[in-house]
C-alpha cells in the first residue's frame, strides 16, 4: 500500500496542518462520548448501536452526493471490501466493549484503557509500515507516556469491582487499534467519507445482535444523548479521524489520542467537580509538548495518498 511507504521528508512543515487540526478536533469531540453514554437511558451496547444507526444515513447521504462516491464491489476490489467489512466489525466490537466498560469502571480507567491504541497503533507503524520515529518523535513518545501516566495515575484505582470493566476497556483499545490499521489501509484508495460510511454500515448488525443477546434495553425513552453521541462521536469525531488517517503517520494519530484524557479530565473538573492536582497539570503540559514535537518531526503521506480519487 502507498501509505506504508511514508516520505522521508521531515521538518516543521511536514505534517499537513489541516490534517493535524482534524485529528486534534476529532479527539476533542470523541472525549465527550463516555459522558453521553452514561446519560443514555438504553443499555451500553444499545447506545453504541444508536450512535452508529443514527449517523449512518447522514454519512451515506454525504458520501452519495460527494464527487468521490462509494464504488460498487468489482473486479480487483475484494480486498478493499474485506478491509471495510472487518474494520466495521472491529469497530462494533470496540464500541460495544468500551461502552460496557464505561459503566463498570471509573471514568479514569475507561479513558486510560480505552485509548491504549495510543501506543499500539504507533507500534504498527514502526514494525509493519516501517515509519520509524525520528529523534524528536522518540522524545515525544517518552513524554507522552510519562504525561499520560501522571494524568491518569492519580485517579486510577486497582479495585476487584472494576476488573470486568477494566478488561472490557483493554479489549476496546486493542480493537480500536485494529480498526485504525484496517482503515488506514482503506484510506490509500478510498476518500474519507465513503470509507467511514461503509465501515459504519458494517457495524450496525453486529451491535444490534450484541445488544439483543445481552438482553439490553434497546429502544430509548429520551433521544437527546444518543443524537449528540451520533453527531459528535460518529459523524464529527470519526469523520475527522478517518480523514486524518489518510494523511498522518501512525505515531501522530496515536499520540493525538491522548487529547481525549486531557479533555476528559477537564470534563470531570467542570461536570463532576473533580479537582486537578499538580501531577494532572504536569501531565497535561507533557502531553502538549509531545504533540508539538511529533507535529514538527512527523512525516507526510505521498501525494498519491491524498483525497483526489
UniProtKB/TrEMBL annotation:
The chain crosses the membrane at residues 18-36, 48-66, 78-100, 106-127, 139-157, 163-183, 195-215, 221-244, 251-270, 276-294. SUPFAM superfamilies: Multidrug resistance efflux transporter EmrE. Keywords: Membrane, Transmembrane, Transmembrane helix. Pfam families: EamA (PF00892). It comes from the Bacteria. InterPro entries: EamA_dom, EmrE-like. Residues 21-151, 164-294 form the EamA domain. This is DMT family transporter. The lineage of its organism: Bacteria, Pseudomonadati, Pseudomonadota, Alphaproteobacteria, Sphingomonadales.
